[in-house]
Amino acid sequence: MLLITGATGNVGGYVCDLLCLQNQPFLKASSRKRDDPQTRWLDFLKPESFHHALKGITTVFLVRPPALANPGRDMLPFLTACRDQGIQKIVFLSLQGADTIAVTPHAKIEKRIVELGIPFVFLRPSFFMQNLTMQQRADIRGHDEILVPAGRGQTNFIDARDIAESAVKCLTDSALRNRAFTLTGNISYTYDTVAELLTQALGRPIHYRKPGLLPYIIRTRKKGHPLGYAVITGLIFTMARLGKASGNSQDMVHLLGRSPRTLEEFIKEHAPLWNPNM
Ligand SMILES: NC(=O)c1ccc[n+]([C@@H]2O[C@H](COP(=O)([O-])OP(=O)(O)OC[C@H]3O[C@@H](n4cnc5c(N)ncnc54)[C@H](OP(=O)(O)O)[C@@H]3O)[C@@H](O)[C@H]2O)c1
Description:
Blueprint: E1 2-4, H1 10-21, E2 26-30, E3 39-41, H2 50-54, E4 59-63, H3 71-74, H4 76-84, E5 89-93, H5 105-116, E6 120-125, E7 127-128, H6 137-143, E8 145-147, E9 155-158, H7 160-172, E10 179-183, E11 188-189, H8 191-202, E12 207-209, H9 213-222, H10 227-241, H11 251-256, H12 263-270
Parallel strand pairs: 1-2, 1-4, 2-3, 4-5, 5-6, 6-10, 7-9, 8-12
Antiparallel strand pairs: 9-11
Helix pairs in contact: 1-7, 4-5, 8-12, 9-10
NADP nicotinamide-adenine-dinucleotide phosphate binds at residues 5-12, 30-32, 42-45, 63-66, 93, 95, 125, 127-128, 131.
């Protein structure tokens, strides 16, 4: 049986949709207790939830919640429980570059999964296109601006739906184990170009502001996010500023046998979401 963590999130939600379409049996994990036979209570910060959540589970789709910034404290106890309960595979939603940038929470989680000897697939995606319709939506819709500290660095974007389809392949194909896949779109863009693509699709000027790391962290805190989230996301955008988020990989083409969705298609499809009158 599959257990999908992050089931209400960007990628986990699409993973659940695709598993439903394929009639694959699975359970959703929820950090809140629910009276629902398809859902198991699992809070990474509450070890008392682990045993029941993992009962009868063979394979886990693992998402690190962005707010949990200290993997040693927040995530590793759950990984130990997975080993102790005989989980046969973890498909972990990691991060592009986690194999080389050891300070990221994702690199620490990958390392621990390997140390525990749990068979794995690491999915290392570039930036989600959905950031533009989620985290950055209010700035684009209400203020016609993008405010991320990525400078003039190039960023690669992938659609969370493509990550989810890759994840479902890795969850359901038993031959895929002890592998890592870097999942990217085919083109990388500066945020100036992203602003230009939005300008063309929306018919009004969208500006890319280039805040420094500290102003970004202060602003993200003011929006109500925890400090750990503000710092980690700020550092991830800084990786983009330093040119470390632009690599393109063909791993998704090899996994799914098709090209990734493009940012241009994504922006056209989602244009109504940035309309201030809707
Ligand atoms: N955004 C990007 O561009 C990008 C790029 C590469 C990698 N990533 C990585 O992808 C991962 C997911 O990021 P996201 O922004 O898409 O987040 P998300 O999956 O949309 O949301 C976080 C999920 O975590 C669950 N959650 C929160 N607190 C929890 C807890 N204490 N215990 C168990 N589950 C909990 C939430 O479920 P409930 O509703 O049940 O609380 C929610 O489904 C992160 O590790 C991020 O670093 C993101």
